[in-house]
Amino acid sequence: MLIRIVRLTLEPARVAEFLRLFQESEDQIRAMPGCRFLELWQDADQPHVYCTHSHWDSADALNAYRRSALFGQVWPATKVLFAAPPVAFSVRPAVLPPAPGQI
Q1: Could you give the number of structural domains in the chain?
Q2: In what residue span(s) does the ABM domain sit (predicted)?
């Protein structure tokens, strides 16, 4: 599983536009092959900063979405709302070694 976090700093006056765009596309994104989870977070201290948090079966599934017609519509419409460049990264759950004495 791949977890994708994208931090979006929006122009404060355009937050409502972003939220409408997210609501219009979230179910379609969730329906993309390999998407297992999608939610939107709002920064606790900066109300114009949001993060998308999504889970994908693999990097290939995420990249297929990023090559899709849906992404080609949603991302350009979202980018024009930014006050700063987005910050995106992918992570996986960490695999920890067994604790001493638990082998």
Answers
A1: 1
A2: 2-92
